[in-house]
Amino acid sequence: RDTLFEQIQEDALWFEIIQVSPEDIDKYNIYRADQLAMEQIAIHSNAEVVLTDAMPLLIEGREIIPLVKGDQKSISIAAASILAKVTRDRAMLEYDKEYPEYGFAKHKGYPTKQHMEALHTYGVTKIHRKSFGPVREEYMKIKLF
Length: 145
Hints:
The protein has eight helices and two strands; from the N terminus they run αααββααααα. It has 145 residues and is mostly helical. The protein folds into two domains: 98 residues, no CATH class; 46 residues, no CATH class.
């Protein structure tokens, strides 16, 4: 993926990456926060036609085509997926330096057994989405005491 990430950045006519904060996800929910980020990118692109991976967007004056399994049907969506995943993975590597006890480099933030044990042992960090079930439960325990 890293090689493709670099190649996509070199060869793409245009791209933009927006990272959605844990606070925005907690505020809007993950679906709406992602949708808002995609709408921003679509507006910045000035594209008349916008393809998404099954995500409807609310942009006036644009043709929006939400494709189910879009990353399998469109090279543009597949490329955007690679940019997103590599960006997330690189962010997790940086978070691993800040919070090595959580093992972000290994599980990339997914709710693995190791991650859940670290969350229980060390608590919730600023990068955790407090609206996510297991994190919310730990966060509520902390707030109660």
